[in-house]
Design a protein that fits this description.
The structure is a single chain. This protein has eleven helices and 20 strands. It has 386 residues and is of the alpha/beta class. It has a domain of 224 residues: FAD/NAD(P)-binding domain, CATH 3.50.50. It has a seven-stranded mixed sheet with strand order 7-6-15-16-17-14-18, with helices on both faces. A six-stranded mixed sheet has the order 9-3-2-13-20-19. Strand 15 and strand 16 form a beta hairpin. The termini are far apart. 47% of the residues are buried. Bound molecules: flavin-adenine dinucleotide. The site of flavin-adenine dinucleotide (FAD) has 39 residues, from helix 1, strand 14, strand 17, strand 18 and helix 8.
Length: 386
């Protein structure tokens, strides 16, 4: 039996961040992932400055390893309609490629890595977990994304009876002709809201790569809206392609829709496994990183008492940061679902620069008022969350 202080299932941003912090606390940590890294993840690959800060990313070093596209604005509008440009004096977001980003974070986390190793089972015996009949650990952390097997182990209704965001995306290198002819800005992201404002499409240029996708609050309308987006991108010469690469789909939960447990005896869930994404924007990387940092704080505070009661400070920290879990059944991607006249008003509003800048971007998508959680600066206390 291979013993460790903590075993984390999933080596995405949540898993690697949690691992790094626990290693810093002096724990012997194993990260288990079924994938071979670098591996891809269905994602637009857009991160906010708070992520950079919380991860203590050295951007110059990162840029030597992979694509890093600073974004200084957005072109926004309703799908098929005119676009409004919102510019900022500095970078307000960054485009990264998940294959590179996740690999970079995992390599630097300092944990023992068990890759290409699917989680098979975990049995609880005398205050310990026996995982895959190979590892013995007092602490099991589920960071396996939306379909995390540890979330299932804790009884989460994964994939059934959950109101998840659904999104489809493709990322591909531009050939010379496309790079020359594409009208997609190199430094601004494009956000195209669906007619009913219950989702949005995007087109993001990251160095020589393009990422195109669309997400909605339900699968209804997803295919049709995606086709409209692609036709529009072609007809406006943004992405003049004859044939699109394959699109991949994935689902994940917004924080206010998740009923997944955060804590059980000897166990915590972080990131998509817990259902942490921002309900307005669908941003999932920042909440994954932040929940992982908070989980590590709770583990430190538990001082080896990993019963659910000992780990309960994680729930308090998460609720202090993200608000009480409310379990709203309402769809909330983009703008809240509203009666027809209010949607018409909403469509008009998302064509006006002040509303786009101050509400849609600054408040919903960039959350500019929210300071980053910084592990080394003593800000991981509820009174410092803003
Ligand atoms: C189309 C789309 C676009 C998105 N765009 C953005 C965006 O631009 N910005 C943003 O902030 N968020 C975005 N998100 C959300 C974001 O991708 C997720 O919230 C984020 O990846 C969550 O990170 P995580 O570490 O919790 O899980 P993941 O990144 O999903 O990592 C989970 C890991 O667990 C491993 N795993 C799973 N099952 C097992 C198993 N049985 N055994 C072993 N290992 C396992 C997987 O291989 C994976 O490496 C998007 C999501 C989608 C679907």
């Amino acid at each position: 039996m291979d013993r460790c202080d903590a075993l984390i299932v999933g080596g995405g941003p949540a898993g690697s961040t949690c691992a790094r912090e626990l290693v810093r606390q002096g724990l012997d940590v194993v990260v288990l992932d079924q994938a071979r890294f670098p591996r891809d993840k269905t994602c637009a690959g857009w991160i906010t400055p708070q992520v950079v800060e919380s991860l203590q990313l050295d951007l110059a070093d990162y840029a030597r390893h992979g694509t890093l596209q600073p974004l200084t604005g957005f072109d926004c509008g309703v799908l098929g309609g005119p676009l409004t440009t919102v510019r900022y004096p500095d970078a307000v977001s960054f485009g990264i490629r998940r294959s590179e980003f996740d690999h970079y974070l995992l390599q630097r986390c300092g944990a023992r890595l068990a890759l290409e190793t699917p989680f098979a089972n975990a049995v609880r015996q005398a205050g310990q977990w026996i995982v895959n009949e190979h590892w013995q650990t007092p602490l099991l952390i589920g960071a396996g994304g939306h379909f995390c097997p540890v979330a299932k182990l804790l009884g989460a209704d994964v994939g059934r009876g959950e109101q998840a965001f659904v999104a489809r995306e493709t990322e591909f290198p531009m050939d010379r002709a496309l790079a020359l002819n594409s009208r997609v800005s190199a430094t601004r992201g494009e956000l195209l809201f669906c007619d009913d404002l219950a989702g949005y499409g995007w087109c993001l240029r990251k160095g020589n790569y393009l990422n195109v996708g669309l997400g909605r609050d339900t699968t209804t309308g997803l295919g049709d809206d995606l086709q409209r987006l692609l036709r529009w991108l072609v007809s406006t010469q943004r992405v003049p392609l004859q044939q699109w690469p394959r699109f991949r789909g994935h689902a994940y939960l917004a924080y206010n829709r998740s009923r997944r447990p955060l804590v059980a005896d000897g166990c915590l869930l972080v990131g998509d496994a817990a259902g942490m994404a921002c309900e307005r924007s669908g941003e999932g990387i920042r909440p994954a990183v932040e929940s992982a940092l908070l989980a590590a704080v709770a583990v430190g505070e538990a001082r080896g008492d990993y019963r659910a009661t000992g780990l309960a400070s994680y729930i308090a920290l998460v609720e202090a940061r993200f608000g009480p879990r409310q379990h709203h059944p309402l769809p909330t991607v983009g703008l809240p679902r509203t009666p027809r006249w209010r949607r018409a008003a909403g469509r008009w509003l998302v064509s006006t620069e002040p509303f786009l800048r101050h509400v849609v971007l600054d408040r919903f998508f960039l959350q500019r008022a929210a300071s980053a959680l910084h592990p080394a600066a003593g800000t991981l206390k509820p009174e410092n969350f803003s």
